[in-house]
Structure formats: C-alpha cells, structure tokens
Amino acid sequence: MPEPHATRRQFLVVASAAALLAVPWPTLAMPDAMKAAIRDVVKGAVVRVGKVKFDVPPLVENGNTVPVTVSVTSPMTDADHVVSIHIFNEKNPQPNVGNFYVGPRAGRGQVATRIRLADTQTLTAIAKLSDGSFWSATADVVVTLAACTEEAS
Predict the structure, then answer these.
(1) CA distance readout (Å), 18 to 14, 21, 72, 81, 118
(2) 63-108 tens-digit pLDDT
(3) Which of 7, 85, 133, 142 is the most exposed place for a label (fewest CB within 10 A)?
(4) Which residues partner with 67 through β-bridges?
C-alpha cells in the first residue's frame, strides 16, 4: 500500500501549478516596458483573447528579419471593421514594434511585415475594432541568433 504522505517532488509540482494559476496570465510574460506600451495603446480598456491570429515561426535562426502576419476576424464593413493592429515584444529596446491603421476599405483585417528580435521572447498582437473592443493573441518565438544587440565599445 502506498505511503499516505506526498513526496517532496509531488509537493513541488502541485505548489508550482498553484502558483501559476494564482498569477494572471498576461503578467507572466510581460516586462514592465511592454505592459506600459500596451497600456498606452488600449488606454485602460479590457483586452480579450480571440479574433486575432498571430502567424510567426516558432523558431527562427536569425532575429534580424522575422516574418510576422497578424490577421483579425472581421467582416470589414462600415459598421464592423478593424481600426488598428499593434505588435509588441517583451525584450527589444522598443516594445511597440508596429502600429498599423486599417479601415473597411482595406478589405481584410490583416498586416504582414518583418521585424527584428533581440532574443527569444513572447510577441503580442492587439487589434482594435470599430466597436472600441480590443482583442489579442500571443506567440512565443525562439531566436538562435539575436538581433538588436548593441555592443559596448
């Protein structure tokens, strides 16, 4: 019959899981600069997860040119369309990578670009819709050769 007491390993697994559940998810992956940049864009509005699709390779060899596509589910009509799409990163010198402004005449709520990444990190895309709501998605990217690094002379 097994011992009624939990092993140290079982205790640590349960304690770690409880700690992760106790902390709101967005605070786990966002340094202060990224949080501040997102606050500047959303102005205190609630940001919900969904409607945004982040297409970025999960592993990139060179951080100098990383392809990124952000798509937002929207009918793109005068009454219901994407107003803007913003891309943020947590470790580059500038956390707000790009701001793209679109409207119903764009035909679809999608932007594609290439960005530089200083290191392995989490990216966040936030879309503002015409009803004033904000929607988001995140993507983790592993960078094997970093970009945006400054060497001291």
Answers:
(1) 6, 5, 33, 39, 32
(2) 999 999 999 999 999 999 999 999 999 988 889 999 999 999 999 9
(3) 7
(4) 114
